[in-house]
Each structure stands twice: as structure tokens, then as C-alpha cells.
Amino acid sequence: MDARSSADPDLPSIRRPLTARKDVHNMLYLLLAILSSALVSLTMRFGEDKAPNRITMLAVNYAVCTLLAALFTKGGLIAAGEGAGVALGLGAVGGVMFLVSFLLLQWNVRVNGVVLSSTFMKLGVLVPTVMAITLFGETPRPVQFVGLALAVAAILIINLGKGGSKAKSGLGLMILLLSGGLTDSLSKIYDQWGIPKWESHYLLYIFCVALILSVALTLYKRQRITRTDVLCGVAIAVPNYFSARFLLLALNSVPAVLAYPTYSVATIVVVSLAGLAFFRERLSCRQLIGMGVILVSIALLNLPAPAAV
């Protein structure tokens, strides 16, 4: 019996071919994931100078995410039955990867600077996209390959060329790219191997493991817990949880080769526009060109397939 046949009716498990995206409803979860991800970035930007203890803030974030995941989990907090082991195993790996990616990003920012670190973290979108093509048999149409190439080009256009940053550790940047990409890939891996019935448990395990590790790290570093750390952690947690949940739900009906690049570059557009509106940031000519390329890439990625004659 196909493991997906025991799906929870509350969690969509629709399998659609790459060309069947006529129903706009299929993109709703992806849109919500993009908005949630943008809120995470904006909240972190707002609190970057206000929360002195990043690991403590991260621990609070994971604590609230764990609570939210528990509230959305039905049938008990421990999965039992077919597919429960996959949810637990991938969830545990995901929790470790969440924290590892964050620590790698921090280390790379210190060694290689913000610009290169941010760029390579965003380029991690290539990992789940390539994985979807090579391992899970998704085949983009030529126009979607062009859209993917433009998405990567847009990331480079927007992030590079800001002062001529040079990498001091190329290996560190590549490990960051792979770590971030593999972390994102877990949603697609669970979509393929897991059972929708345990999707909420899978997220619960991710955040629970990340919480345990971040609390241990907080104690090891002897960081204090300030009121600002708590407030920022809580503010980040809500969109953080829902970005993970909505992306997982989106992958049930939207092909990964479309979902991941769109999710990555559309978030950049939303954050840039919000920065312009709320933080009075000015977009450079390079950024405006990059955003234009992003819009073209999103259009090409989501271009409907021609109707069969």
C-alpha cells in the first residue's frame, strides 16, 4: 500500500504533474510561505540591534515554534504507526540542521563578511532544486530552466558588487550553501517519503530538537536571558513556524523545481519592498535590476504549459 494513502484529510496530498498548475489555489500555500519567510527576515532586521544574545533569542524562537507545532498536532504528541519513524528521523535531522545552518551563517559572517555569506545562503536554493530533478524525477520545461537560471542570476546581481568582498574561506561558503540547501531539502524529502498524517509531528520534532540544542548552547555560552531576547524570539517564532508549515503544504501540490526558486526570490522582493516602505531603505540601480530579473524569473517558472492539441 502507498504510504500516502493514509493521508490526513486536513493535510492536502495532491500529486500533480509539472504542467498541471491551472488552479491558482495550488499556489496559495506557497504565497503564504513567502509572506511568512519575509516576516521572519523583517522581524530579525528590526531586532538585530536590540537583541544582544542571538543564541538565547533563537532558543526562545524554537520554544514558541515547538508550542505552536504541538497545538497543531492531532492525535497525541508522539507519532505511532506507519510512517512515524520517518517523521521522527527526518524531524531530528532537521532540528540539528536548523541550528547548524545558523551557526555556520554566523561563522561565515565573521570570516567572509555579510555579503558573501548572505549570497551563498540564498544560493542554497540550488540544492533542493537539483535534488528534485535528479532524485525525484521532476522535469522542468525549457522555459522553467531559463526561469531558474534567471533566479540564480538575480541573487548574484542583488548581493554581489557591494564593495568587492573577497572570500577568506571558500570552503566555509560552500559548506554554508550545502547546509542551507540540505536543510531546505528536508521538506521535499518528507513530502516524498513521509505520510501527510504525520506532517505536524514532523515539524514538532524539528523544533523540539532545535530547542534542546539551542538551550544547551545557551547554557554552554552562559548567555543571559533579557526581555528583548524573549520579545524578539517570540516575534520571529510565529512567522518562522508558519513559513515551514506552509512550504511543506505547498510541496504537496506544487513541484519543488518551481516552489523552491519562487519561494527564495519572491521573498527577496517582498523584503526589499517592505524595507523601502517601512525602513526607508533606498534601492540601488543594481537592486532594481535584480528585482526586475526576479519578476521575469517568477513569470517564467510559473508559465502554464501549452494546452495539448
Tell me about this structure.
It contains eleven helices and no strands. It has helices spanning 28-47, 54-72, 84-112, 114-123, 126-134, 142-159, 170-193, 199-221, 227-250, 256-278, 285-301. The model is unreliable at 1-23 (pLDDT under 50). The protein has one domain (23-301).
Entry keywords:
single chain, 309 residues, mainly alpha, 11 helices, 70% helix, globular, disordered N terminus
List the helices and strands and how they pair.
Elements: H1 28-47, H2 54-72, H3 84-112, H4 114-123, H5 126-134, H6 142-159, H7 170-193, H8 199-221, H9 227-250, H10 256-278, H11 285-301
Helix pairs in contact: 1-9, 1-10, 2-8, 2-9, 3-4, 3-7, 3-8, 4-6, 4-7, 5-7, 5-10, 6-10, 6-11, 10-11
Describe, in short, the structure shown.
The chain has 309 residues and is mostly helical.
Which shape, going by the Cα principal axes? globular
Distance between the termini: 35 Å
The H-and-E topology, N to C, reads as HHHHHHHHHHH
The counted number of beta strands is: 0
Strand content: under 5%
- Count of helical stretches: 11
Structural class: mainly alpha
Structural domains: how many: 1
| Unreliable runs | 1-23
> Portion of residues in helices?
55-70%
- Whole-number radius of gyration? 19 Å
**Mean model confidence by pLDDT:** 84
Q: Main β-sheet, in a few words?
A: none
